[in-house]
Protein 1
Amino acid sequence: MRPAPKTYRLHIGIFGRRNAGKSSILNALAGQSVSIVSEVAGTTTDPVEKPMELLPLGPVQFIDTAGIDDTGALGTERIERTRQATERTDLAVIVVGDGHWTPFEQQLSDGFRQRQVPLVVVFNKSDLGDPSTEARQTLESAKQDFVNVSALKGTGIGALRQALLQTAPQDFVNRPGILTDLVPPGECAVLVVPIDKEAPKGRLIMPQVQSIRDLLDNDSFCLVTKERELRRTLDRLKVPPALVVTDSQAFLKVAADTPASIPLTSFSILFARFQGDLTEMVRGAMAIDTLKPGDSVLIAEACTHHPIGEDIGTVKIPRWLTQYVGGALKVEHTRGHDFPEDLSPYRLVIHCGACMWNRREMLSRLLQCRQAGVPLTNYGLTIAYSLGIFERALGPFPAALDVYRNTAHKPGARHP
């Protein structure tokens, strides 16, 4: 049985200075040796991730990171990896090993508060002494609770577990489903799944699998078909489905074969809502109208797979955008956790559905783009906009559709 995907795991990042005992804390929480522990500063280099169950919360992903005070050329690389880990952290743990609250901890704390990431502070090595008076006063003035722990002696670990459970963000605990609000219990969704060169052998891609499970959990049911069989599938149904969901690459054919009375959208647009902020990404898609030939566009892919054939990110979306804009764009690509700190060269960022990530990392990228004044949208919204079926694809989402209609009809605005 496969473990729960990262999408459904609460990402708990462990941060602090070198030799604070971050790896020892992770090992104590996991009840096993996950990270190498050493008295030598800087033992942890790349973040170490450990999936486990933290009951009664459920599946979590611990992230053990390098010291935020690392030095030298290699240390700078380690700090960058740690910074990237902050962007996918749902719940942050700052570990202090010497009882002193320094500018390093304060910088971490300020960053998490800015992103509204809940925080647990841990004073490790309590067997060697208590937190300093200054550290206590600083945290008390910020109304920040803390836990005293000795990872070496095993004391305080239970209190730390309880603090993690109590601090877990409610939007994770009570997270809404992918599409269950669109398909009531007892109703049917038709899922259109093209099988092409990029379809993995013997299995479905993550958004399709997650959507099927979401429907089953809601006591809804679904039919899965390829785009060539969609019309026959719909003709054989006695009752129209509550929703048709397609792979974005088959949008045009599926839209043509699905009666206008049946709501239609794509897996990618569902994930714009599930993993990010659909309304903001709708506004981002509308920025396509501002593009001119020669403008720079960044296409960001969460996965690090090697693209083949008519890859959607490297081939199809650039082609559709070129046709829509009327000339070639300067398209750059990033994959995995790499993402430019300076977004000023770009007129638009187009992101994949981020089905392999947790929602926090996608929200972090949205925040970074918002602060840089660069619109961000995703694959499905870009495809629907470029192909002229944007309004149809937003039909199941009235609030997002209103944003589009209210903006698209302003003087000077074009819409497909």
Protein 2
Amino acid sequence: MEIKNTEIEKGINLTMKIFQILLRYALLWLILLTLYFPMPSRAAYPVLHDYIITYNQKDLEQSLNDDTYQGEVGILRIRPDIAGDLGMKIFMDQDYLDSRILFKKSEAALKKVEALLKSEDKELSSEYYTKNILESYLIYKNNLELIRTKLAVYRTKIAPENDERMNDVVSTNLMARLLEESFKRQDYRLRDALGDFYNVCHGVIDAVFPVTKENVKFVNHVYNGFIQHSSREIMKTFNLDHDVGYKVDFKTSNWKRVAENEMPKLASNLEIVFKRLEGKIYNVDPLLFIALLKKESSFNPKAVSSVGAAGLAQFMPKTAQGMGMKNIYMPDYFNEAGSFLARERRVRREAFAILEQIDEENGLENSARAREKMQIALALRKEGINLFSRYKKELQGDYSDDRLQPDLSIEYGIKYFSSLMKSQKGDISLALASYNAGQSRVRDYKGIPPYEETVGYRNKVLMFYREYIAMLKAE
């Protein structure tokens, strides 16, 4: 009987030891998981993972068709040299290394072509331009063909056995680590974190702002997927550029200190307008609107842009009229100025289309035609700029315009931006993009349009806004 009891006790003890070991390992894994994936990113990770992969797969396929492929593979769509720097075991051979050298030569050749197309040096003959455009463009074109061939061979040699980019488990772990690092660097601002993540995966280390013209389509795609397929609880763990974070009540004196510091001569105007519009418009954080005015006009009531936007809020004439402003200076030549720049863009595209048709047989003829088109485009641009310069001089001279009246510019600026904030359901980034590029373009691109000016505009206004918030929090 004692023997049986002893055996039972031994069995129980062994079971307990095994349970304790398993429990210890489970706790260890839980601790490591918590350290590696803080709660916000862990909860959001599956959605972000799926949308990053779908975007990268589509982008990779597109790059193979438009000669922008540079040796990327795997769910991260990452080049081998960049992956190696990030700690992955990768495969590189001479074909790949040769392609990198050829890419640099191609870029240099294309830049030379563009410079020759735009050059207005009268001392150089048309024959000189034609010959050198042809020579440089053929270098560019032939190098692209060599790159395509070398990278096609390189791709056949890549396998999970020799390159961890093809290992989904390793790539997924790296993606998680890079995302978490980006979240922390960008203080969990999701759009900025996604831009930062993209930049790291593409070897971009010198971007002034994380969201750029080059990565904004990626940011839009992943951000939209996250918004559509994440719970409210998960979304609350990120800064989504919505007006639900630091909110300033316009009745308090906090925002006035920023206004008096930034725009002392106009702070009282701003306060009066906010009070008059209370309860009549979608509520806009005064700090955000001050940041917008700083980017638009540097608080100069008489500011006029190079294309005719005027006043503190920088309204174009048609936008101002559509908002209800009555006295808008709109001479007959204003629309003509805009048409010159529109034609310039069209003719410029035609010039590059002609370049793409160049081959050994028609090279000289098409080189001459492309340069002729580009010179016409430059002349059209000059005409447009001259007319807009005339408009600016007249507008800042004796002509009156409601946009140059500080009270009116502030009032209509707040109303207009408020309407955009309401339309974009409080999404500050989309409201700013709409203010700069128009709501139709925001709809077309399902997010921030990939225009350098618009992306830069959004970045700068948000930078000013965060500086104002930090200023008040530090007091």
